[in-house]
C-alpha cells in the first residue's frame, strides 16, 4: 500500500497511531473488567457501560484536533455528540434494565460505526485505514444485533464485551499499519 506524504499527514498519522494503541489497551482492559461483572447490571457494570462512550468522546476530541491539518474534523464532532448522548442514555437506561441498555448501546454502535466508516474511507490515502473501515462496518452490524438482542427472552451484557474486543484488535492493526505514514516526512 502506498501512503501519501503530504505535510500534516505524518503528524496526524503519528497522533492517530498513539491514540489507536491507547484505544486498544483501554478496550482490552475494559472488556476484562466488564467480563467479571457482566452477568448482572450492577453499579460496576453500569459505570463501565457509561465509561466506554465517554472514553470514545475523549478519543474523538484528540482525533479531531489531530485531523485539522489533513481534513475536516466535522464528523468527529458528530461522534463526540453521539457518544455523549450515548453515555447519558446508558446512565438512564441502566435503571431500566439490560434490554434498555442494549437498545442504547446498539443505537450508539450503529451511528458511531457509520461515522468511523466514513472518516476512515476519507482517510484512505493516509494508510492504515482498512481495519477502521472494516471495524466501522462491523460496528453498524453489531449495533443492529444489540437492538435485536434486547427483545430476546434472556438478554445479556456479555455481547458488549464481544463488541469491544474485535474493536480493540482493529485499533491495534490500524496503529501498526499507520507506522509507515507516521515515519514519513
Topology:
Elements: H1 9-37, H2 43-67, H3 74-93, H4 98-122, H5 130-149, H6 158-177, H7 179-183
Helix pairs in contact: 1-2, 1-6, 2-3, 3-4, 4-5, 5-6
* DSSP summary, beta strand count: 0
Task: Name the poorly predicted regions.
Answer: 1-5
The pLDDT mean sits at 89
Helix content: over 70%
Q: Main sheet, how many strands, which sense, barrel?
A: none
Strand coverage percent: under 5%
The helix/strand order is HHHHHHH
Radius of gyration, in Å, reads 16 Å
Distance between the termini: 17 Å
Structural class determined from secondary elements: mainly alpha
SS field, number of helical segments: 7
Oligomeric state of the chains present here: single chain
- Write down the overall geometry: elongated
Task: Give an overview in words.
The protein has 185 residues and is mainly α. Helices cover 78% and strands 0% of the residues. It is built from seven helices and no strands. The protein has helices spanning 9-37, 43-67, 74-93, 98-122, 130-149, 158-177, 179-183. α1 (9-37) packs antiparallel against α2 (43-67) and α4 (98-122) packs antiparallel against α5 (130-149).
